[in-house]
Specification:
Layout: H1 2-7, E1 14-18, H2 24-27, E2 39-43, E3 72-76, E4 96-100, E5 120-124, H3 127-130, H4 141-144, E6 149-152
Parallel strand pairs: 1-2, 2-3, 3-4, 4-5, 5-6
């Protein structure tokens, strides 16, 4: 059933997913989305995997069609998030990332440096990242130095 209604969402540009224990079941249906999503907001999700091959959780799989043009992603209030999802690096059109109130997020991945279209990174109320993202001296600085606008607070 979700496949059918996803195909009918031809003009969908923004999607917000909030309050799910896991978004994997919902995200896998984005392959059926006929629209090209511009913005994705994920909030209050316990298990954060953007997509995966259902047959093999460790294998790399293709970006769902509905996410190929994603330009903005916000990850908010995901209290159990310890690591940023690696799949983010497959989103080459991404221009904006906001991470808000993810208190257990320990570091940013090295792969952020490969998102060459990324223009803005906002990290707000993520206490473990504050020192790691300090200009020129933070451990994660080499991974984000190419981004024109960085706000950490």
């Amino acid at each position: 059933m979700p496949e059918q209604w996803m195909k009918n969402l031809k003009s969908l540009e923004r999607l917000s997913l909030s309050g799910f224990p896991s978004i994997v079941p919902m995200i896998r249906h984005l392959q059926h989305l006929s629209a090209e999503l511009q913005e994705l907001r994920i909030s209050q999700v316990d298990k954060l995997e953007l997509w995966r091959d259902e047959g093999n959780a460790s294998s790399k799989c293709q970006v769902p069609h509905g996410l190929k043009s994603l330009q903005k992603i916000s990850i908010e209030f995901c209290d159990n998030l310890k690591a940023f999802p690696n799949q983010i690096f497959d989103l080459q059109s991404l221009r904006y990332i906001k991470i808000l109130h993810c208190d257990d997020l320990e570091s940013l991945p090295e792969g952020l440096r490969f998102l060459t279209n990324l223009q803005t990174l906002h990290i707000i109320h993520c206490h473990l990242l504050r020192n790691r993202c300090q200009t020129k001296i933070g451990e994660d600085w080499p991974n984000i130095a190419h981004i024109p606008e960085i706000i950490v607070g």
